[in-house]
Amino acid sequence: MKVLVIGGDGYCGWATALYLSNRGYEVGILDSLVRRHWDLEQCIETLTPIAPIQQRLQRWTDLTGKNIELFIGDINNYDFLVKSLLKFEPEAIVHFGEQRSAPFSMIDREHAVLTQVNNVVGNLNILYALRDHFPDCHLVKLGTMGEYGTPNIDIEEGYITIEHNGRKDTLPYPKQPGSFYHLSKVHDSHNIHFACKIWGLRATDLNQGVVYGVLTEETGMDELLINRLDYDGIFGTALNRFCIQAAVGHPLTVYGTGGQTRAFLDIRDTVRCVEIAIANPANAGEFRVFNQFTEMFSVGDLALMVKKAATSLGLDVEINNLDNPRVEKEEHYFNAKNTSLLSLGLQPHYLSDSLLDSLLNFAVKYKHRVDQKQILPKVSWHRK
Ligand SMILES: NC(=O)c1ccc[n+]([C@@H]2O[C@H](COP(=O)([O-])OP(=O)(O)OC[C@H]3O[C@@H](n4cnc5c(N)ncnc54)[C@H](O)[C@@H]3O)[C@@H](O)[C@H]2O)c1
Predict the structure, then answer these.
(1) Non-local CB neighbours of 52 within 8 Å, separated by 6+ positions
(2) Which of 166, 265, 279, 382 lies 20 to 30 Å from 21 when distance is taken between CA atoms?
């Protein structure tokens, strides 16, 4: 099957593209490389030294004999997008190609606009390109668990059945996102749902939790295939960030009380979830939603787990509860469903001491690359 991975130079997309290629899919990568540009603009860098995409792909071919076709360009450029699709002729598109940092979207008006235009218009372009050229192609779109926010009831997978004044309906689950980035994902979900309804497109929205880990079977095959690992206050996500902080002896940066509970998964499960979605496509006209995570943790508990694992490796770790730069509930109910992917065969890699050890050791190996000035959060949600 031919699968185009949009955003295939990024953290999730790179691991997914190689995994699918290894599994026998015919894979293409489309990426504007804009994430590398945003890193330069913010003066930040992945912990791991990532090679230029062309070198990464050449190494993959040399090692495996498998070829991944590359399309460099922006999905906001509709002509480029359509030409690439006509050349590649995808049967499935996996869409990772968005600005994915909440703090980046909250820097100022320009970054909020950039995030929403990049994400919402790019996604809308894909919908139009599918309508006009590949209406049967399955769109697998990366959403986020952050679309739901933290409601005081259980979170369902995309839809909820409600009885109101004696009548009953199954409706899209209410969304209460916590940043202009998360809002862009909600807008995407609505646009995809509508396009499926009116044009009969088939789509799966993967509401993904926070991803942790760095090694997959494929990215671990060679130093040139290494994946990115972000630790800075803008793109670094909890757990990955904590492990790197522990490795360099920086106090773990827990925002507020640390009672914020979120959904998490190992990057080895991200790649598998995407394959499960591709192998079991949505029906024509169906907008299917899967919650893509394996476990829920509070940020404070994660910090304690990292501290324990790091201490047993001889690292000295403090936990620092910082003033929360975000506006969010720090103590709340959080219970989300994740049964769809499990029932389709996902066998989770749960967070374990051995994973924490390997991530910590990995971080220690590259700690000479850490710029300590980039660790603390600099972007505030609050009005100045
Ligand atoms: N990393 C996580 O923990 C996480 C959690 C939940 C959801 N997600 C979602 O998964 C997706 C991938 O996240 P990631 O962590 O791999 O991000 P990333 O920044 O590492 O990768 C995104 C890639 O998309 C490319 N891109 C962005 N805009 C583009 C455009 N207009 N045209 C072409 N390419 C473009 C970037 O250059 C980059 O290579 C995002 O949609 C994100 O919202 C990620």
Answers:
(1) none
(2) 265
- The superfamily CATH assigns to domain 2-369 is NAD(P)-binding Rossmann-like Domain (3.40.50.720)
185 annotated active-site: yes
State yes or no: is 181 an active-site residue: yes
pLDDT digits (tens, 9 = 90+) for 110-162: 999 999 999 999 999 999 999 999 999 999 999 999 999 999 999 999 999 99
Which token pair is 94? 């996996």
Q: Is 340 in the pocket of ligand 1 (CB under 6 A)?
A: no
For ligand 1, whether the C-beta of 273 sits within 6 Å is: no
Which secondary structure element, helix H or strand E, spans residue 357, and what is its range? helix 353-365
Active-site residue identified among 19, 181, 212, 255: 181
Q: Spell out the long-range contacts of 369-374 with Cβ–Cβ below 8 A and sequence spacing 24 or more.
A: 369/45, 369/47, 369/48, 369/49, 370/47, 370/231, 370/244, 370/247, 370/248, 371/44, 371/45, 371/232, 372/248, 372/250, 374/43, 374/44, 374/231, 374/232, 374/233
pTM confidence score: 0.98
- Nearest CA among 192, 237, 231 for reference residue 100: 237
258 pLDDT band, cuts 50/70/90, is: very high
Q: Which of 46, 185, 204, 216 is catalytic?
A: 185
| The ligand 1 atom nearest the CA atom of 292 | 6
Model pLDDT for residues 286-329, shown as the tens digit of each residue: 999 999 999 999 999 999 999 999 999 999 999 999 999 999 99
What proportions of the chain, in percent to the nearest 5, are helix, strand and coil?
Answer: 40, 20, 40
